[in-house]
Amino acid sequence: xxxxxxxxxxxxxxxxxxxxxxxxxxxxxxxxxxxxxxxxxxxxxxxxxxxxxxxxxxxxxxxxxxxxxxxxxxxxxxxxxxxxxxxxxxxxxxxxxxxxxxxxxxxxxxxxxxxxxxxxxxxxxxxxxxxxxxxxxxxxxxxxxxxxxxxxxxxxxxxxxxxxxxxxxxxxxxxxxxxxxxxxxxxxxxxxxxxxxxxxxxxxxxxxxxxxxxxxxxxxxxxxxxxxxxxxxxxxxxxxxxxxxxxxxxxxxxxxxxxxxxxxxxxxxxxxxxxxxxxxxxxxxxxxxxxxxxxxxxxxxxxxxxxxxxxxxxxxxxxxxxxxxxxxxxxxxxxxxxxxxxxxxxxxxxxxxxxxxxxxxxxxxxxxxxxxxxxxxxxxxxxxxxxxxxxxxxxxxxxxxxxxxxxxxxxxxxxxxxxxxxxxxxxxxxxxxxxxxxxxxxxxxxxxxxxxxxxxxxxxxxxxxxxxxxxxxxxxxxxxxxxxxxxxxxxxxxxxxxxxxxxxxxxxxxxxxxxxxxxxxxxxxxxxxxxxxxxxxxxxxxxxxxxxxxxxxxxxxxxxxxxxxxxxxxxxxxxxxxxxxxxxxxxxxxxxxxxxxxxxxxxxxxxxxxxxxxxxxxx
Amino acid sequence: xxxxxxxxxxxxxxxxxxxxxxxxxxxxxxxxxxxxxxxxxxxxxxxxxxxxxxxxxxxxxxxxxxxxxxxxxxxxxxxxxxxxxxxxxxxxxxxxxxxxxxxxxxxxxxxxxxxxxxxxxxxxxxxxxxxxxxxxxxxxxxxxxxxxxxxxxxxxxxxxxxxxxxxxxxxxxxxxxxxxxxxxxxxxxxxxxxxxxxxxxxxxxxxxxxxxxxxxxxxxxxxxxxxxxxxxxxxxxxxxxxxxxxxxxxxxxxxxxxxxxxxxxxxxxxxxxxxxxxxxxxxxxxxxxxxxxxxxxxxxxxxxxxxxxxxxxxxxxxxxxxxxxxxxxxxxxxxxxxxxxxxxxxxxxxxxxxxxxxxxxxxxxxxxxxxxxxxxxxxxxxxxxxxxxxxxxxxxxxxxxxxxxxxxxxxxxxxxxxxxxxxxxxxxxxxxxxxxxxxxxxxxxxxxxxxxxxxxxxxxxxxxxxxxxxxxxxxxxxxxxxxxxxxxxxxxxxxxxxxxxxxxxxxxxxxxxxxxxxxxxxxxxxxxxxxxxxxxxxxxxxxxxxxxxxxxxxxxxxxxxxxxxxxxxxxxxxxxxxxxxxxxxxxxxxxxxxxxxxxxxxxxxxxxxxxxxxxxxxx
Lengths: 619, 619
Known about the structure:
Chains A, B: Keywords: Calcium, Magnesium, Metal-binding, Thiamine pyrophosphate, Transferase. The first copy, chain A, is an alpha/beta fold.
């Protein structure tokens, strides 16, 4: 054993001790899944090639340095190893490690950004590689920096389709700065994985998708791990190191055994295991190699132009979305747009044509699109991802997880609702408001005309956090001019009088139905208030409560399911105000038909609104 | 050209004419994506091997016959071709075809079961193969029938990760009765696909995943298509025919050209195209080969045992879920359980141990699990799919689409809410009630103790449709005995008096917090009603309205986001009843901690309920 190996072996030993100590103290966690990757990760972070070239370069005093190498634990349950690595690097004490999984500790059960060295929250399997794709795309095409992105992958999670979305897109974009490290420890949660220890079967598939692979027959032998990492320095393509390892390695009680997934040793077992492992100390923290002090390529922002639409005209909000992106693109050099092969429908195409270098075609793979968007966002980009609202559903788990990464990420779902017409229910987004509302601190915007869309895209760009924007397929009449502002959390009262006997609350396509209904009702001598609820979350509770008080009746109209949408958002807002709230929403099985027929079928068109008001305010 | 070819060529010609006529009349639809697969599908449905062996056997007078071969258009936008095929088979007239995409026509923009020959609704890409896996699993392992399942796939949709989930599991289960037919027409919606016309690149990947492949260099040449289909008769593994085709084939105006995705010809262009194609008639409907008259293997149901729990004990609802499945398994020979590699957590394992032949391990691939479940359900199985509530989010698009297939499909999401504790937010299902409530006619059940769980699993099995059951990780005290019934749409009033000053509505883990709070408040002289809302959708509006009227204040308590959950369901139910509704729900960023600490952090524990009541009913 040469000197380098001895140092790494010592570090590996120290990592094992910390993994056991922290999980035994916590009384939960995944020691076995951590132990299998000890040598792979120790070699990566603290090893170097025979020529002295480090594999991993990172300034722990500046974790956000733009040229740090990136390390993502896609198998987030191996967090005890992740934290132990940073302890070995001198960034956590043993006492810190013993706070693992405790309420006020940043060392959560699965890594989150509460711990400074976490690049992105993981723990829902099969997402880390997609995040890595975003970081690698950023290095290669946007920031033009030499940093590399490493992703530790579990073998169980390779069955997630999202992995193969990430694998294919990495090959497509020739990301030779992306390295996957696949820890094939054979055992999943419930038993053996689909391919067991057959590392060749993984290699065949990854290579068929256009990657290089390096096989490591014994992932616990530094004599094999270091050469693999050395070879990876010269990758011409995205590269995956595929290593045969053992779950629970180093602890006979659990090594390579069933029924030890996600289970810590108890205090007694822990003591025994530590005795068997022998004493370990970190005499001095292991040093990480310094990154080069390079900064991203940057271009200067230009002045933001105002949107221009002709009064009295009409335009689809999805077109305004595309135009707004193109307009904002000049003012925000960090703005990047992703789309899932439907940019000529979401109209993100308008941005692509103007800024082709900042548009990435993500093909029909929505899950990876969102993870990649997250990776770009974490690297400082202002990212908009778009597809049909109906297909964005595909990526809701990635959306959920992006929230736990504190992501600054913008989503656009187009073709919302039954009003898309003939294409039928599979293409109709009807659950999107409900889902995005559940995301903590999310913003949900739903513009009704082109001008408000343009302004709301600006607001989305300005707001740090998760923003969802819902757009409509059909053209809608222009309601606002360029002087109007649309702050997040606001609304627009479009019809109001002291004689109002009911309030109509709507957004998007149904706002226009509500306005027509209000005009019809006015002719019948019934005044109704009309509110454009362009900001569904947060919403303008004050204005809604005032309307509740003053008119006593609120009717919500939405091209969305009756649950979790505008209706229930309004109900929540006025829950403390005595008032009758009546919901009009999509409540029949949608189908193909003309937009008008479908609005009528679902009782969310002008006539249905008129009927509802007449029924409720009948003297 | 031999005689068989001439007949198929004539059919192909007829299909092209119908595709153009129907889409031109509709003024929308996807003629180009239909035209590329004309020969592949005509050959499949109406062709035979040189030895006279038909490729496809189906009794059109009995579309549900258990031994019919199955044909799924995963590229659902090619519906004009799908309907034209059935027209060629004598099942639709030209007049029927001209109703395409009209409101009262069963011929929707994307196939739905409103058309009798649709196996499952498609239109969200990348789902048909997973459905096919379910049908092929059924044939091979359950019904033990020789029918085969064919799935027409688009090249664009091969980028969906869900495809690779289906591909891998088909190989794992050795489904040599499943045939994919990949229509590589080079063009996606927005332009060229990732691999263009490189059919070898698809073959490499599909083979690496363990399938056989057959390449067809010209998918419009019956001399190539028929031999490929003949070879497919002898598949030893799942098999994919990968054919190079041209989008818009046969219509010079659109053939192999950009910007013709999803666009029909206008009336003038349509006339010209039909002139160029020349006249086509179906002198006689093309005959489909008869299926063998075989019926599924069946076993007799046994009597359903009653669940047994000791009064005063406690058990986790997830354990009761597993026990209920095992109990129902004997009474329902058609009951099948799928799980995504966490059956020892969801406790579906209890069923697996008793009925290993009716349990299918779906590995960590939730999307395909749901599609496969749908395929099994369509073939008459009573299917329960389970994973963590947090990870079921991964398959929400498949859930959404299953609804449009009128599926009889049951979902169980375990480990709901922050009360799972130390594992942290990535593992906490907090959006599930909101999402499942949006699904039209869905049933959402949320039991609080083992006994009600057992009964609700029975109810779920009895109910035809989509049912979601939410279970809890922790043990909870037993509340009910075996005599109690739990009808869907009901609730249980657990505390009630004429002096009630508020009503607590809860389910699952928080019901127990509400009960403790009620007892504490009672000691302070404040009587409150407590309702176990085990049926969140539909819910017992009458009892809730009565509580609203009688107590004036409702406090909902849920381990779920504040949007779309129990709180808003109750708000909707009492929207017409003057009453103050106050929601307690998860409103802070969740993290790792003990279950008790997290319930406290989120203000959904006993103390928070007591505080809320005190604040609201203070005289």
